[in-house]
Amino acid sequence: xPYDLGALRRTEFPWADETTYLDHASIGPIPERTxxxxxxxxxxxxxxxxxxxxxxxxxxxxxx
Length: 64
Fold this sequence. Notes:
The protein is mainly alpha-helical and 64 residues long. The chain has one domain (5-21, 29-62). It has 3 helices and no strands. It has helices at residues 5-12, 32-45, 53-62.
């Protein structure tokens, strides 16, 4: 099954058809799925009493 790079670009970087972005080492655009995950976490972070241990330290717990 071929990989549809155009569809991925339209989904993850919807603004890319409107502009040319030249990435540089200190900052770059993030995919839409990453932005949504960050928005979700920051919304939950406004109510820290609802954050679970896994929300804050899950990646550390999985590290070897």
